[in-house]
Amino acid sequence: MGQIFKAQILTPKNQKTVLFYDPGYLVVSDEGKIEFVGTKNPRQKYKNYRFHDHSDLIICPGFIDTHNHLPQYAFAGIGDFSLLPWLKKYTFPRETQFKSEKTARPAANNFFTSLLKNGTTTTLTYVTTHFSATNIAFEEAKKAKIRAIIGKVMMDSFSPSALQEKTEKSLQDSLELIEKWHGHDRRLFYALTPRFALTCSSKLLEKIATLAKEKDVYIQTHLSENLEELKLVKKRFPKAKSYTDVYYRAGLLTPKTILAHCIHLSNPELTLIKKAGASISHCPSSNRFLMSGQMPARKYLTASTQLSLGTDVAGGYSLSMFNEMREALETSKSYINPLKPEEVFYMATLGGAKALSMHKITGSLEPGKEADFLIIDPLKFTPDPNTKYQNPTQILSQMIYRGSEFAIKNVFIAGKKLN
Ligand code: GUN
Ligand code: ZN
């Protein structure tokens, strides 16, 4: 049966504008597609639909987290180091444990459940170099009914021996996972996942590019996160003009490539990314937690680079996209012309969908799209219930700065309530 939801509705129109319907109506078909959004009362037209009066609640699109690491969630919030020692001390030992299903399955189950609790309805996720752990991650994402693009990490050089792969095996395993999962239920997709230049040979990077093209799958990797990492990349790839050029030469920059961090890019690097139509996953809380530096978001937006937001758990300490939006706003204040609430909301929703080429199906509340949305209780973040703000920017700002998983009452994907 179709459904009608009455609520305060917030949805991005574009990078700069948020639409606000109050009271607004969201009409969802039996198949889980949005039929109508707006202020005109649709109850006459959709007589047989079930009506939900949520006049005191907010409805907004589900969030899209374009960068995180499933196996790292267990140690989120722990880490007293910058990137390279942190990988060695916390990340690689934890990822090694994913050889065992006894670790991999409950961790995957907890991870996707936690993403949904935090209002994330679409995620782009790294697992480990293990075939079985990645297969399990897909199985658990399927059970959770989340939209997910998932990839087995690929590393064939300078990695801990327990995690390092042979080049051909890394490609074969990835291919098998692509055949099994890419496009499954129209909800699960595959991302080839070279971890970063420092743990991949040029041969592996080139072969990944060929495979991505052949199978039309996503590519996700890290780029220009930490200054020590940059120095090592320069040494390891002396022919490349820049870190970005390492990926460009290999053919890894495509419209379906998502590059995490991108803090220390030169202008020519930015141009390479933009021309290829690749996008950047901005991870401000991780950038602060691991002391990696600050990504100049405004500069990148002015250069028309495609930006979305990633929690980068466990470089980031939280799966909350409220937290990530807040961090993006706060860290942008070190620059002239800081970001605005509308801009970070866009990055967490429709901008994320664009980065993942999913903007025709999700990321905003528009007729024809899948009904992926959140019901949010503003009383959970309003400081004084006697004083309500009516201006959409103010409501959005208060939701971003004071929102958390506890304000999320329900999560819907394709019109089905998941919790
Ligand atoms: N660079 C290579 N691997 C990682 C990782 O797991 N996390 C972060 N933040 N950066 C990386
Ligand atoms: Zn990362």
Entry summary:
This protein has 419 residues and is an alpha/beta fold.
Characterization of this structure:
This protein is an alpha/beta fold and 419 residues long. It has two domains: 3-61 and 364-417, Urease, subunit C, domain 1, CATH 2.30.40.10; 63-355, Metal-dependent hydrolases (TIM Barrel, Alpha-Beta Barrel), CATH 3.20.20.140. Helices cover 36% and strands 23% of the residues. The strands form two sheets. Strands 5, 6, 7, 8, 9, 10, 11, 12 and 13 form a nine-stranded parallel β-sheet that branches. Strands 3-2-1-4-14-15-16 form a seven-stranded mixed β-sheet. The longest helix is centred in the N-terminal third of the chain and has 17 residues, at 101-117. It is globular and about 65 Å long. Zinc ion is lined by residues 67, 69, 222, 260, 312, 315.
